Input
Amino acid sequence: MNPNPADMLVFLEVVEARSFTGAADRLGRTKSAVSQTVTRLEDDLGCKLLYRSTRTLSLTEAGTRFHAHCRELRHTYDTALTDTRNAGTEGDGLLTVTAPHALSAPLMLPVITDFTQQFPKVQIRLFSSDTAMNLAEARIDLAVRVGEPKQQGARVSRLGNITESLYASPGYIAQQPPFTGDLSDLAGWDHIANDWQGNPVSYDVPKGERLKVKPRIRCNTLPDVHYLAIAGAGIALLPDIVARDAHQRGTLQAVMPMGAAPVFSVHEFGRHPPGKVKTFIEMLRARLKIAADTRQRY
Output
């Protein structure tokens, strides 16, 4: 039978302590248990490792050879523990993240920029995808998802909310009948929608109003919806974090605030993610809070 590596480390303690009693004290075991471990090790190897007397212990020729290998085992063991526990905490290595296309430019890219400045030795890989990727198969360290994920076995943390509003260009708004604040006023406007919004598109506001419209223009990516709204092609539902810059420049105007969707981080590191993953999550959370505060000032 091959020896147990744990027994090899016990044998190493006996040699370094030069007694079973000393090794037992170091290991927090009984002298009898330590002695039985060494005996089991000798039985597994089929050779004697120690000369025992009432006062001293000494290594046999086989024990001397084996002792050297036990020291190598302990070094490898200690190195493996240190390297694994420090993974991601030294500010280096690769960090792979994924997020929906809609959040890449307004959320992920600014966070990545700040993160790489803080950790210049970390390499970043970003996958923009509206499809929920398999984190293990794609070797993704961290995913950002809108809406609560259904992924089993993953660590899910809420980052904040993505608020949404209906936006249109000032020029387009000026061409429409006066907006009184009722959702029904928008029934005759040209609507630009993303494919995921369905057909017809249903708008709901917190006070209970609902409006269903058939969009004039449909797109399969949010950046295209954003572009067409700025160009004056109609009104569109956009995340405030996406429309913020155009709103501040005056090329988009918030017509009506809508609801909010929760944003989550997802990883498969359990309760002990690497330091770079924890830091990235906190930076995402801070960025979303800034976006929420900005919307309150609209």
User: Anything to note?
Assistant: The radius of gyration is 31 Å. The chain has a mean pLDDT of 89.
